[in-house]
From TrEMBL:
A Pfam family hit: Glycos_transf_2
Domain of life assignment: Eukaryota
Protein name: Polypeptide N-acetylgalactosaminyltransferase
Region annotation (Disordered) ranges: 35-54
Length: 502
């Protein structure tokens, strides 16, 4: 009898432990997993509004006529004009249900009842009618109406001026048309300058916002106006327009050529994240979809309006926000879909490469201090290319009393660290090399080559010694570029924080 009771207790204990584990596992399981949850909880789908609401949403705009006004002709390449499958986009119509891709715990969060309203700013250049209308409609469908002060469209001198006029018939929508092609940076500034709400929300012209996308972002900015926040950006397939959930473990990053990329959240931060609804601090934002307090946007100097067409403004804004007293975060409970493309469907009047170089050079020259040398090593073609005057932006930086780039690099939020894989000191594909074998010589980045004597280093206490010259890496002053000097490992300027490589 006692034996049986002991067994029963043991079985119950095991069952209880298994049950606990199962519960915890369920809790962490990505909601998108279709298999085990299929029977109990059908995937949540964000429904379009009921039929009677639809006509009101668009006011005077005759949607059918608008969409029919520009359609693919039989035999045309559906990818030609927009670098996505226009036929599929048109076929979808202006609204559709999309899956609620948030972690299920997001649905039970509460937001203040008195959140401030926002001006939505969307700039476009020759956007397809169906994608642009879906962007606008998804905002009207999936945002609490009281939070949408207005939707400001900036038509960046698209070939057809009619789109702007027609879309202005939609309630809350205003459309401004540029008299010449300005690019997305100056267009956004124009939009921000006419916005009447205290909070700005930027969107690309081919997005679909998801359930409760706006409240988490406005809440964070309301609590602290120096926060600049963005959603997790889901993927809308450029081929079949399927709405796909993006990973919730990514943040923004870049390489030294100032090329944006998504990167995994560092492992120690990931382990520390017990609550999947919490914000993720990010070194940079992708650039197109974010919410920012309007006076903070203005205080920080809006954008660098000498940047043209496309590119680089996301780094410039991100560096500036961190270095001048703000912060950047991604909010996992806010989801917005975006059509990611493989090429630009529009022309760059000065050429794509030159424009990107001009814009990123401006960002590097104004914000990156001695680290700009890494940019030039990674992008040698940038040297000598025109980038205009940066005097105004340097004055701005001084006036705002912004921290050095070194601070940005060292405060955890940044790039992959240096790796000493003897004898190379590498960061991705580039290695640290001395420029000459004499004391005082500068160091630079170049493609790794383990046979190159100028690239060979070894640790010497907390210092790093160049093997051939015997000199040590020295940061001199915080603002000057690093050099090699006589080894004095006890000196702070020669002391480098170790990192264990496994
Ligand atoms: O001359 C132009 N004028 C414009 O108004 C060129 C573009 N545009 C508009 C365009 O119609 C679109 O609405 O500007 C917006 C962005 O242009 P895209 O969609 O061609 O850019 P992208 O999605 O490839 O680029 C990302 O990086 C850009 C760098 O300048 C901008 O910051 C984009 O807003 C940004 N998009 C996103 O962050 C969405 C997520 C993608 C990622 C990563
Ligand atoms: Mn885009």
């Amino acid at each position: 009898m006692r034996r049986i009771r002991a067994n029963a207790i043991a079985i119950l204990t095991v069952a209880w432990i298994l049950g606990t584990f199962y519960y915890l596992w369920q809790d962490n399981k990505p909601q998108s997993s279709p298999s085990s949850s299929a029977l109990l909880c059908p995937p949540q789908v964000t429904q379009p509004p009921r039929a009677e609401g639809q006509s009101q949403l668009l006011g005077g705009l005759d949607e059918k006529a608008y969409l029919a006004g520009k359609q693919l002709k039989p035999g045309d390449d559906p990818y030609r004009d927009h670098a996505f499958n226009l036929q599929e986009s048109d076929r979808l119509g202006s609204e559709r249900a999309i899956r609620d891709t948030r972690h299920y715990r997001c649905a039970s969060l509460n937001y203040d009842a008195d959140l401030p309203s926002t001006s939505i700013i969307i700039t476009f250049h020759n956007e397809a009618r169906s994608t642009l209308l879906r962007t606008i409609k998804s905002v009207l469908m999936r945002s609490p109406p009281s939070l949408i002060q207005e939707i400001i469209l900036i038509d960046d001198f698209s070939s057809d001026p009619e789109d702007c006029q027609l879309l202005s018939q939609i309630p809350k929508v205003r459309c401004l048309r540029n008299g010449r092609r300005e690019g997305l940076i100056r267009s956004r500034v124009r939009g921000a300058n006419t916005a009447s709400a205290s909070i700005l929300t930027f969107l690309d012209s081919h997005c679909e916002v998801n359930t409760d996308w706006l409240q988490p972002m406005i809440q964070r900015v309301k609590e602290d106006h120096t926060r600049v926040v963005s959603p997790i950006i889901d993927v809308i397939s450029l081929d079949n327009f399927a709405y796909l959930a993006a990973s919730a473990d990514l943040r923004g990053g870049f390489d030294w050529s100032l090329h944006f990329k998504w990167e995994q959240i560092p492992i120690e931060q990931k382990m520390a994240r017990s609550d999947p609804t919490q914000p993720i601090r990010t070194p940079v934002i992708a650039g197109g979809i974010f919410v920012m307090d309007k006076s903070w946007f203005n205080h920080l100097g809006q954008y660098d309006t000498h940047m043209d067409i496309w590119g680089g403004e996301n780094f410039e804004l991100s560096f500036r926000v961190w270095m001048c007293g703000g912060s950047l975060e991604i909010l996992p409970c806010s989801r917005v879909g975006h059509v990611f493309r493989k090429r630009h469907p529009y022309d760059f009047p000065e050429g794509n490469a030159l424009t990107y170089i001009k814009n990123t050079r401006r960002a590097a020259e104004v914000w990156m201090d001695e680290y700009k040398q890494y940019y030039y090593s990674a992008r040698p073609s940038a040297q000598g290319k025109a980038f205009g005057s940066i005097a105004d932006r340097l004055t701005l930086r001084r006036k705002l009393n912004c921290k050095p780039f070194r601070w940005y690099m060292e405060n955890g939020c940044c790039m992959e660290r240096w790796e000493l894989i003897e004898p190379l000191l590498r960061q991705q594909d580039l290695c640290l090399a001395i420029s000459a074998f004499t004391a005082g010589s500068k160091v630079k980045m170049e493609p790794c080559n383990a046979k190159e004597p100028r690239q060979k280093w070894k640790p010497k206490g907390t210092a790093l010694q160049h093997m051939v010259s015997g000199l040590c890496l020295d940061s001199q002053t915080p603002t000057g570029p690093p050099v090699i000097t006589q080894c004095r490992p006890q000196m702070a300027s020669q002391s480098w924080e170790p990192q264990i490589i496994t």
